[in-house]
Amino acid sequence: MYTIFKLMGVGLGIGAGLVGTQLVDFIWKRATGNEPPKDKEGLENSLRSALAFAVISGSVSTTIRVLTNRTTQRAIHRYERTRHLT
Fold this sequence. Notes:
Layout: H1 2-32, H2 47-82
Helix pairs in contact: 1-2
């Protein structure tokens, strides 16, 4: 059963990561009016904007990873407590 919870956690993490990436891209475009500085070709972007985008997207992805791991651990703990009821 732990394997199922861990696989669900990985799946949720991937899904949440994709949604988080799209959300950061959308907010960046709305706030700055420019595309996110992701390309190797995007030399018109300043170093400051590239660093700001990296910090923002990194913090969002780390937050998503931590929340997904905590949720998975909470589900495993809840299953362990109620396992004898089934």
